[in-house]
Write a structure and sequence with these properties.
Keywords: Nucleus, Repeat, Ribosome biogenesis, rRNA processing, Transcription, WD repeat
Largest sheet: 5 strands, mixed
Structural class: mainly beta
InterPro entries: Beta-prop_WDR75_2nd (IPR057644), Quinoprotein_ADH-like_sf (IPR011047), WD40/YVTN_repeat-like_dom_sf (IPR015943), WD40_repeat_CS (IPR019775), WD40_repeat_dom_sf (IPR036322), WD40_rpt (IPR001680), WDR75 (IPR053826)
Shape: elongated
Radius of gyration: 33 Å
GO molecular function: RNA binding
GO cellular component, one term: small-subunit processome
Number of strands: 55
Helix content: under 10%
Number of helices: 8
GO biological process, one term: positive regulation of rRNA processing
Length: about 800
């Protein structure tokens, strides 16, 4: 397979399966449900995805079988279209362009050429109408459906707030504490209202409505858990209703059986209740369904029920209330604290799932493989209650070991570090070691020494914490004769650096070096002797991400700061190789190649830059990756490497990059002009031709961005000369020079200086620079700032070269 010429970003899964009511096929062999802007068809027998209907440009809000042909399906979307599908073959038959956002869809057997939909009311905010949409039968695949008739005004946008009565004779709609019923033949409207609260303080607000398929009976759910069965509602004053009550909180949905002999209800209790013959005494229960029930569906043959849950799961239930099948999508928690981690064994994405659980999510099938209970405590659904939360997770190289961190913060912080070993017999992880309070403060990062040959002999885990320590944990033999396992984990080394908080940690590819960031400083340690080898610093800003290069780039260390710097250090020369000013939110190395992906946040959208550490020029740039901030990213290995022709996309040959987004807004930031950003950003005042030819263009500069100021601020204080010596140079740098030089003379001077810099290796280490096409970083730090003359810059370099260490003796 040859990759396309352009890089595409595709939503691969994770959409809500409970966004609208699911629909059974006529023979109950298939279940159709919405999934973002797709419609998915699952096999009821195998739970597998049979096909996916793609064509809508926005969220699908409703699906209905075509009453005239049960092998066809209608779907509505926020893109303003209604599509007719042959779902058995996955073929789009026709598209009807309505022109309004469609929030709900209904299809009736006695209306052959029309469907009903809920649309926004023109000119009014948060006001909606139920309309009839006439579907013309003219030839062509796309046609306009602009003939709309308003049925009800002031309805609720939720699809479960409107229902049609037996044989389509009437429609019932609820909103707040009002019920309105419209009779089509008589064109009569009856309205009924309840008080907001009853005498016992119950909440009478309507939450859902369902109509009996054979009788004139309407069932409504309420905020206090009650269900009302309305009868004789054809008269405004002679209506009656009876009350059913079991739910202790809001009734989420209602559905009648095919013959109407029983009523199904569900709520936040995760229990499906079956009421027989409208009696409060005769009811059956199916408990422990996992999470709140959002929708209830009934198959047309009456043999199966289906419940859609808020944890993105669909449960298929037999008519005798026996559990049959479950389809679990990606669980979206309130906060993904573990990040995206790839399980080396299954290549599944691992992240927070249900409270206290890890979910293993298959990217190919868009389904959850299984869930691992980490906290092993019952979760209590109560607002404001602090409970143990899963915050960190890490796998060893081959997936034999799993490390997790749980925390709960009340008056005192409670921390637990757990080490799990994979059991080949049960094909699951089994708890090996539990460590209470491994650190005195929050754990900020952890990682395994990920070289394969180390795993069986001497696996090692490193944790970093806000208590200004990092700790190395190793396996030791358990000498306790009553112990259930032969080995356990114990602390082997504790390290710190100037009492700074440890923020990140990672091992080199061969496992010999460990990098730990302490606020603004990165420290590099020997993982065998625990000697501190070197430190790197690039102020201002704390270190946000660090990673080592791999394969041919293993001698480089990459770091990103929260002040918008991306830096690359050479571990052999202990010098800064290059740096760029870029607001990197995610820094993710590919485990199978030298490539590193950096995701930045620029101008209200996320952009992707892929590069090799040994080359500051990016290999691939994808601007406007998405309009949301990217939280996490992960490279997932392919089963079979792709055949990719373009050199620009070779980094996708063996792995695919997945990322997770959120909906948070960010402050717009600009990308300053550095040599790296010239290759990444817009060339504002300098043409690409001049950059390629190595020419330097002089800009007018603002004083606050003066290179002299940056030199003074970034030079260590103990090597600076006296202020009286530097003051004249600094003052002169603020003056505008009267001399004007040609571009050729300036280019010659830059070339001469670069040659002098190459002859002096000590100067290379002292001056932070990135050599690329003979361009120096200081030439492009700002757009319009005052710059030093060449003689002044040379004099300032000589000053920085001078050894002032003798001052320390005083």
């Amino acid at each position: 397979m040859v990759a396309p010429a352009a890089l595409r970003v595709v939503r691969c899964g994770g959409s809500k399966l409970h966004g609208a009511r699911a629909v059974f096929s006529a023979d109950a062999r298939y279940l159709l449900c919405t999934s973002g802007d797709f419609v998915k068809m699952y096999s009821v027998g195998t739970e597998e995805t049979v096909c996916m209907l793609q064509g809508h440009a926005d969220l699908v809000t409703g699906i209905q079988l075509n009453p005239q042909n049960h092998l066809q399906l209608y779907s509505s979307s926020l893109d303003g279209t209604i599509k007719l599908w042959d779902f058995t073959d996955g073929i789009l038959i026709k598209t009807f362009i309505v022109g309004y956002k469609l929030l709900a869809l209904y299809a009736l057997a006695n209306c052959e050429d029309s469907v009903f939909a809920v649309i926004p009311k023109s000119g009014e905010r948060d006001s909606f109408q139920l309309v009839s949409v006439k579907l013309t039968k003219t030839a062509g695949q796309e046609m306009e459906a602009k003939e709309l008739s308003v049925i009800l005004d002031g309805v609720d946008e939720s699809p479960k707030h409107t229902a049609f009565g037996r044989e389509g004779e009437y429609v019932a709609s609820v909103k707040e504490v009002n019920l309105q019923v419209y009779f089509f033949k008589r064109k009569q409207m009856n309205r009924f209202s309840l008080s907001a609260t009853n005498t016992k303080g119950g909440n009478n607000r309507f939450t859902c409505v369902a109509c009996h398929p054979k009788e004139d009976c309407i069932a409504t759910g309420h905020g206090d858990g009650k269900i009302r069965l309305w009868r004789n509602f054809c008269h405004n004053k002679e209506y009656t209703f009876s009350t059913l009550h079991w739910h202790h909180d809001i009734v989420m949905d209602l559905a009648f059986s095919v013959e109407g002999t029983s009523l199904l209800s569900g709520g936040i209790e995760s229990v499906l209740v079956q009421w027989h013959n409208g009696s409060d005494c005769k009811k059956d229960f199916l408990p422990r369904l996992g999470s709140a029930i959002e929708y209830i569906s009934v198959s047309s043959d009456g043999t199966s029920y289906c419940t859609s849950h808020t944890d993105n799961r669909i449960t298929i239930i037999n008519s005798n209330l026996r559990f049959s099948k479950s389809i679990q999508g990606l669980i979206k928690g309130r906060d993904v604290k573990t990040g995206l981690v790839v399980d080396p064994r299954t290549k599944a994405l691992v992240l927070n799932g249900e409270p206290g659980h890890l979910q293993f999510y298959c990217l190919q099938s868009d389904k959850q493989l299984y869930s691992l209970d980490i906290v092993q405590q019952e979760y209590i659904h109560q607002a404001g209650l602090n409970q143990l939360d899963l915050v960190k997770v890490a796998f060893s190289a081959q997936g034999k070991w799993l490390a997790t961190v749980e925390e709960r913060e009340e008056t005192d912080l409670e921390l637990q570090l757990k080490l799990w070993v994979f059991d080949e017999e049960t094909q699951s992880f089994k708890l090996n070691t539990r460590i209470n309070m491994p650190h005195e403060d929050h754990i900020t990062a952890m990682c395994f020494r990920d070289r394969d040959e180390f795993e069986d002999d001497s696996p090692m885990l490193v944790t970093a914490g806000k208590d200004c320590l990092f700790k190395a944990w190793v396996i030791v033999e358990d000498t306790d004769p009553e112990a259930q396992q032969s080995v356990s984990w114990s602390c082997d080394f504790v390290g710190s650096y100037h009492n700074y908080q440890a923020t990140n940690c990672c091992f080199s590819e061969d496992g010999s070096l460990l990098a730990v960031s302490f606020e603004e400083t990165i420290t590099v340690w020997d993982s065998v002797t625990w000697d501190l080898k070197c430190t790197f610093c690039h102020p201002p800003g704390k270190i946000r991400n660090i990673c080592f290069g791999r394969l041919t780039c293993s001698k480089y260390l990459i770091g990103a700061t929260d002040h918008g710097f991306l830096c690359c250090w050479n571990l052999l020369s202990c010098a800064l190789e290059w740096s760029a000013q870029l607001n990197v939110l995610v820094l993710q190395p590919d485990p199978l190649s030298e490539h590193i992906a950096a995701v930045s946040w620029l101008s209200k959208d996320s952009s992707l830059f892929v590069f090799k550490p040994n080359k500051p020029r990016p290999i691939c740039i994808q601007r406007n990756l998405c309009k949301e901030k990217i939280q996490f990213a992960a490279f997932v290995p392919r089963d079979i490497p792709e055949t990719i022709v373009s050199e620009k996309y070779l980094w996708l040959r063996r792995s695919q990059l997945y990322f997770l987004t959120n909906t948070q807004l960010a402050v717009e930031e600009s990308l300053p002009m550095t040599p790296f950003s010239l290759l990444l950003g817009k060339h504002r005042q300098q043409s690409q031709e001049d950059v390629d030819l190595g020419k330097v263009v002089i800009h007018n500069h603002h004083n606050q961005d003066s290179p002299a100021v940056k030199e003074l601020l970034h030079t260590p204080a103990h090597v600076l000369p006296s202020a009286s010596f530097l003051c004249p140079i600094f003052i002169n740098s603020l003056l505008t020079s009267k001399e004007s030089k040609s571009a050729e003379e300036i280019a010659d001077e830059v070339e001469m200086e670069s040659e002098e810099a190459e002859d002096d290796s000590d100067e290379e280490r002292d001056i932070i620079e990135m050599e690329q096409d003979d361009l120096r970083p200081m030439d492009f730090l700002g757009e319009t700032t005052c710059r030093l003359s060449k003689s002044q810059e040379k004099e300032l370099r000589k000053i920085r070269k001078m050894d002032y260490s003798w001052i320390s003796s005083f």
